Amino acid sequence: MPARRSPLALASRWLLWLWMAGVIVAAFRAPLAAGFAGLDAASPQTSRIVFFHVPIAITSFVAFMVAAVWSGIYLWRRRPNADRAAAAAVEIGLVFCVLAIVTGALWAEVQWGAFWNWDPRQVSIAIAILFYGAYLNLRGALDDEETRARLSAAYAVLGFVVAPFLFFIMPRLFDMSLHPTPGTSRMEPAIGMVVLASTAGFVALFFWMQGLRRRILTLAAQRRAIEIPGEI
Amino acid sequence: MFDDGILWLAAVNLILWTGLFLYLLAIERRLHDKDDDR
Prior knowledge:
The complex is a heterodimer of chains A (232) and B (38). Chain A is mostly helical.
């Protein structure tokens, strides 16, 4: 008997649409008071990118941590589904990471005069892209499903250390960042609320996309199992 | 409600978001149909 689509699941999707539509409206009508985050002097309107750039960067960090958790679960229980969930999290996390670096570069061009400034945060997010890009290369290089799952899980579990280091520790090691130091710059409560709401929306979007990607990977594995009996 | 020149940008963002949303919804529907087929 075919499973019915859950009306609750569908309602939650439309709730997300409404939520993000609200974030977009709020992002473009939020008043940018003088001194907002200390960044709006050159071009106040371009500072609205903060409502997307910061949440997207946070979401990529969440994605890499989710990948590390699923990889740990795979190493513990050896469930292929956990491996696919980790791979999906890295893939979607990389999309968010690239979006974060692109939106950051666009903003940097306006605020700092160049797309790339060798800012510690720019460098650390670029290293994160290379690190997780290497994860996908590793997966692509291994044919045997079990070996691929085991080695890539061992690699992604390093994310528990690597991701917090790249996102939070490395940018603070250097006293030359053009980025505002979190906690020291003043952000108006109204602005902070929109950033927070946007972050929640992007994280929810990530989990949705990751779930879809995981299901696609599962279908692909099942198809391979039919074509090559004995492999799953 | 919006500053001058910002309204169209908000509209473009809304269209992009709606497009992505409907695309994801379509993928979900197709995956669900494939689940039903099996």
